[in-house]
Automatic annotation (TrEMBL):
Forms a ring-shaped head-to-tail homodimer around DNA. InterPro entries: DNA_clamp_sf (IPR046938), DNA_polIII_beta (IPR001001), DNA_polIII_beta_C (IPR022635), DNA_polIII_beta_cen (IPR022637), DNA_polIII_beta_N (IPR022634). GO terms for biological process: DNA strand elongation involved in DNA replication. The keyword 4Fe-4S does not apply. Pfam families: DNA_pol3_beta, DNA_pol3_beta_2, DNA_pol3_beta_3. Residues 252-371 form the DNA polymerase III beta sliding clamp C-terminal domain. This is Beta sliding clamp. Residues 133-249 form the DNA polymerase III beta sliding clamp central domain. It is found in: Cytoplasm. The keyword Nucleotidyltransferase applies. It comes from Magnetovibrio blakemorei.
Length: 372
């Protein structure tokens, strides 16, 4: 394998693939990126056996071939080379080394045979549909913060993606929960997705996908089976195993009988929560909401720091209600809402509360209260 490639192009591809490579590996080949040169392109492939990414970029290939090189080391070398540089990669010596030359710099990297690199991207993926990058990003943005990090409840360590119905219309819905809060977002069901199984996309896959689609406005091809999912766009192919588990019946968690409704300006509410939470204890982060006709008082206290209150105007006509929430959870929800006004549907101090953006039913958040 021998080729010349622009530093910027190689750095962009390496930044995409090296994130998948774990820093500590008991299997040496998994620390490497597979490099395949041919047809005027360099294809980079990295995997951790659960997640696999391929990225292709243009290159001047003088000798086709393939090898594998240490992913993080190669990335650091390319990152530290000067802007605008051309890089020559040469693995033709046959001594298990790849030479990287750029200007007066020369590096020799130990390689492992490409034949040892695991193949993960094959297999039958019967469900296929296209989704705009902005739609997929929206589904991820509005739900991923609620993914559980508790490894014992592994079936909550991802986003549950499935076909559903909303007011009689078919939708593609994403749901995440950690038992304390639940986030749900949906978009019109794409053609070809109506027969899809309900799947749980792992947290690491969600985060890597989110980074990749930040850079694109392309249509994303989604292909999936009950065990795997694949996202293809802009020369990138991301393939992931799915979480083998059953996502809980989340619709039972969404309360139906919340009869008290409060509307409040999102930014003013978020700023007030942020201010009063400065005094709450690091452990509980509790903030109390006292709802009364036309007003909302936020308060927090701790034995070490003292107490704080803040008052806002609100549209509320129900009976007086005091309810406590984790302020960090409230602020995370405020960051996902784009509109000016939020609507909170409440029942009592011990029951879950629904939070929505006024006039937008495509996303909802359920938050469990806490004692204050």
């Amino acid at each position: 394998m021998k080729l010349i490639i622009e530093r910027a192009a190689l750095l962009k591809s390496l930044s995409h693939v090296q994130n998948v490579v774990e820093r500590r590996n008991t299997i040496p080949i998994l620390s490497n990126v597979k490099m395949t040169a041919g047809d005027g392109k360099l294809r980079l492939n990295a995997t951790d056996m659960d997640l696999d990414i391929v990225d292709a970029t243009a290159a001047e290939v003088s000798q086709p071939g393939e090898t594998t090189a240490p992913a993080h080391t190669l990335y650091e070398i390319v990152r530290k080379l000067p802007d605008g540089a051309d890089i020559e990669l040469d693995a033709t010596s046959g001594d298990g080394q790849m030479v990287l030359r750029s200007g007066r710099s020369r590096f020799s990297l130990s390689c492992l045979p490409a034949g040892e690199f695991p193949v993960m991207s094959g297999g039958d993926l019967p469900v296929n549909f296209d989704l705009a990058a902005v739609q997929l990003k929206d589904l991820i943005d509005k739900t991923r913060f609620a993914i559980s990090t508790e490894e014992t409840r592994y079936y909550l360590n991802g986003i549950y993606l499935h076909a559903a119905e909303q007011d009689g219309a078919p939708v593609l819905r994403a749901v995440a929960t950690d038992g304390h809060r639940l986030a749900s977002a949906e978009t019109p069901l794409p053609d070809g997705a109506d027969g899809m199984p309900g799947i749980i996309v792992p947290r690491k896959t969600v985060n890597e996908l989110h980074k990749l689609i930040e850079e694109t406005e392309a249509e994303i091809r989604v292909s999936l089976s009950e065990a795997k999912i694949q996202f293809s766009f802009d020369g990138v192919v991301l393939t992931s195993k799915l979480i083998d588990g059953t996502f809980p019946d989340y619709e039972r968690v969404i309360p139906q009988g919340n009869d008290k409704e409060m509307k409040v300006l999102r930014k003013a509410f978020g700023d007030a929560v942020d201010r009063v939470s400065a005094i709450s204890t690091e452990k509980s982060r509790a903030v109390k909401l006292t709802l009364d006709k036309g007003s909302l008082v936020l308060s927090a206290s701790s034995p070490e720091s003292g107490s704080a209150t803040d008052e806002l105007e609100s549209d509320y006509a129900g009976e007086r209600l005091e309810i406590g929430f984790n302020s960090a959870y409230l602020l995370e929800i405020m960051r996902q809402v784009e509109g000016d006004t939020i609507v909170m549907s409440l029942s009592d101090a011990a029951s879950p509360t629904i939070i929505r953006e006024e006039g937008d039913d495509s996303a909802l958040y359920v938050l469990m209260p806490m004692r204050v």
